[in-house]
Amino acid sequence: MKLTAEISMYPLTESDYKAPIRWLIKRLDSYPNIQRVTHSLGTQISGDCDEIMQILATEMKATDAKWGKAMFVCKFVEGELDLTRRT
Fold first, then answer.
1. What is the pTM for the complete model shown?
2. What phi and psi values does residue 47 have, to the nearest 5 degrees?
3. Which residue has the higher pLDDT, 52 or 13?
4. HEC profile for the chain?
5. How far apart are CA 67 and CA 50, in angstroms?
6. In angstroms, rounded to a whole number, what is the distance separating the alpha carbons of residues 37 and 16?
7. What angle in degrees, to the nearest 10, is found between the helix axes of 18-28 and 49-67?
8. For position 86, what pLDDT does the model report?
9. pLDDT at 80 over 90
10. Most C-beta atoms within 10 A of its C-beta, which of 1, 30, 45, 78?
């Protein structure tokens, strides 16, 4: 099954909040089997459902280990949306 997820990360730190977000986006780019697009309110990733869920688990743990607490808000839609299409 294919899945598309939209992720918004809110670092719960008093320091620069942009650095952890940029770090996460760069890490998401390292996964060759997914599509990724980032816009002003979040990042969308699309690919195999099991892989997307594993990526989210891995990256949430990595974020906590490197930056401390962060809130992740995720929305999911079944299917692989065309992330290159702008409306």
1. 0.86
2. 170, -155
3. 52
4. CEEEEEEEEEECCCCCCHHHHHHHHHHHCCCCCCEEEEECCEEEEEEEHHHHHHHHHHHHHHHHHHHCCEEEEEEEEECCCCCCCCC
5. 25
6. 22
7. 140
8. 57
9. no
10. 45
What is the spatial distance between Cα 1 and Cα 23, in angstroms, rounded to a whole number? Answer: 28
Strand partners, 4: 46, 77
- Collect all residues with Cβ–Cβ distance below 8 Å to 7 and sequence separation of at least 6: 42, 43, 44, 45, 56, 72, 73, 74
The two tokens of residue 69 are: 């607490």
Tell me: the pLDDT tens digits for 16-55? 889 999 999 999 999 999 999 998 889 999 999 999 999 9
Residue type, 31: Y
